[in-house]
Design a protein that fits this description.
The protein is of the alpha/beta class and 375 residues long. The chain is built from 13 helices and 13 strands. The protein has 2 domains: 93 residues, no CATH class; 265 residues, Aldolase class I (TIM Barrel). The strands form 2 sheets. The chain has a 10-stranded mixed β-sheet with strand order 1-2-3-4-5-6-7-8-9-10. It has a 3-stranded antiparallel β-sheet with strand order 11-12-13, with no helix packed on it. The protein is globular, with a radius of gyration of 21 Å. The structure holds pyridoxal-5'-phosphate.
Amino acid sequence: MTRRTAAGRIRSMSRTPRRVSPGAPWPVQMRARLRTPEELARWLGKAGPVPWAADPESSGWPMAVTPYYASLIREWSPRDPIVRMCVPLREELRHRGLPPDPFDEEGHTVVPGVIRRYADRVALCATRECAVRCRHCTRRNELVTNANGATLAAADAARAAEWLRRHPEVREALVTGGDPLCLSDRRLDELLGALRAVPTVRVIRIGTRMPVLLPARITRSVCRVLRRHHPVWLNTHFNHPAEITPASAEACRRLVDAGVPVGNQTVLLRGVNDDARTLEDLFRGLVEIRVRPYYLLHCDPVRGAGHFRVPLRRALRLVAMMRRRLTGLAIPQFVIDVPGGESKVPLAPGAVVRWTRDGAVIRGPDGRHWTVRDP
Ligand SMILES: *Cc1c(COP(=O)(O)O)cnc(C)c1O
C-alpha cells in the first residue's frame, strides 16, 4: 500500500530509484539511469550488498545503465552477460599495467574531437555521453581523462568541418563519441548538416549503440533526420543474442526502412560471447533483423577491460568454427587493432606468422609484420 504523505514518499524515494519502465521515452530513461551496483540491485528487487561488484568510483569509469538494458538481466550474478557488460566487476581492477589509450588517439587528434588514424576516414567524437557505460569500452579512460590529464573533447562541428575542407582526401566521417545519438535531434541535424556541407565528405557513418541500449531513442523523428543527410550508414554494437529483442529489432527495422544500411560491430568478450554457439545465435539473429555483421573485434588491450580479453589462438578457433557453420552473410570479418597500423588488421585462421612466448606475430595487409601481446 502506498503512503500518501509527503514524508512517506520522500522516504521511499531515497531507498529505491524511481521505477521507470523499460519502454519509457528515451529522455526519461536517460534521466533515470542506474548509477551504482546497489541501485541496480534494488531496481531488480534484489536486496543487500553486491560483493562481486566494484565501486564505480574506484574503477575509474562511471556506471550508467538504462532501465531498458537493466530489464535484459536474467541472473543477478557476474556470470550474466548483460551484467558483465554494464556493472563494474572487481576483475576490472586487475591488469592495471594495460595502457589507458593503446592506440594513441590523443596523439592522432587533429582538431578537438576529431581522430585521424587512417587515410580516407576520420572518427569524430560528437559527445562524451553514452546511454550505458559499457565496461569493455575502448575509450573508457579517454572519455574520462587520459594519461596526460586531458579529456577527449567533443568535436566542435564548425572546426571539424573546416578541417575536413582542408583535407579533401578524407572521404568519410565516422560520427561517434561517446554515442552521437545522445544528442538531441536538432543538434544531430546541425552536425550532420555541417559535415554534408563539405563536398568531399562523401559518406557519413554513425557509430551508435542506442538500438541495443535504449531502442526507444530510434524514433521516427531521428530516422527523418538521418535520411535528410544520405548516404548515411550506421554501425551498431550487439554482443549477445539476449540483446536481440522485439524492441531492438524494431529500432533496426526503422533504420533500415529509412534507407540506412545497418552493420554491427561485435567485440569478442570473455564470459560474454566467447563460445561458438553464442556467436552463431548472435550472427544468425542479426541477419534475420537485416543487420549485417561487419566486424568481430578482438578486445583492445585497454586499462580496465583486461579481464574481457580472449587468447588469440582461441579466438581464431572460434572464427574457424563460424566459417564451417554459417552462411557468408552472417560472418563478420575478425579484426585486431594495432598501434601505428594503416587499418585494422583482418585475421583469418592461418594469418599468424608465428606464435611467441607472450603473443603472436601477425601479417598486415601491406605485408608488414606486427607483434601483438596476448593474455
Ligand atoms: C576503427 C576506426 C575507424 C573505422 O575503421 P574501418 O576499418 O573503416 O571500420 C576509423 N577511425 C578510427 C580512429 C578507428 O578506430
